[in-house]
Specification:
By secondary structure, the protein is mostly helical. It has a single domain, classed as Ribonuclease iii, N-terminal Endonuclease Domain, Chain A. 61% of the residues lie in helices and 0% in strands. It has 8 helices and no strands. Helix 4 crosses helix 5. It is globular, with a radius of gyration of 16 Å. 31% of the residues are buried.
Length: 162
């Protein structure tokens, strides 16, 4: 089993993983069902942290190996790719805490430009941060990202020579 999947399965054992998989919408559901606020933070801030780690590793991997580094790594960073390739590959929707009663929240992996799937991409980014916080091992994240690069390249037929 790859490391990302291994960490997703630790949701009940890790406060960081649980937070990474807790969407903003879940606060509403929790409040309705429990008549009190959600006692933990959501993945909103954790996604920013994960995005920075993801960018940093992609820059490390491709620095001085490609022209136009910023443009090159964008193909691995788009919300669309994170949703349609990475989230779908790991069936991330099966793990997310979200308000599944909210009809405005898309519950599939088909990206649309209305940003209704952003919460899925944010969960993927938040998982990167959570894994780092759990492991304190940058190399684990790097291994995960290299697997993702291959998955994205194979799925999108967008491999560029480096």
């Amino acid at each position: 089993m790859d490391k990302f999947k291994e960490y997703i399965n630790r949701v009940n054992d890790s406060i960081h993983i649980e937070r990474a998989l807790t969407t903003q919408s879940y606060k509403n559901k929790y409040q309705r069902e429990n008549s009190k606020p959600l006692p933990r933070k959501t993945n909103y801030e954790l996604a920013t942290y994960g995005d920075a780690i993801l960018k940093s590793i992609l820059c490390e991997i491709y620095f001085d190996k490609v022209d136009k580094l910023t443009e090159y790594i964008k193909k691995y960073l788009t919300d669309k790719v994170l949703v349609e390739v990475i989230a779908k590959h790991y069936s991330i929707l099966d793990y997310l805490y979200l308000d599944d009663d909210d009809i405005n929240i898309k519950k599939d992996y088909v990206w649309d430009e209305n940003d209704n799937h952003k919460y899925i991409a944010s969960a993927i980014e938040a998982m990167i941060a959570a894994i780092y916080l759990e492991s304190k091992d940058y190399n684990i994240i790097k291994i995960i990202i290299k697997i993702w690069i291959e998955l994205i390249d194979n799925t999108t037929n967008n491999t560029l020579e480096i």
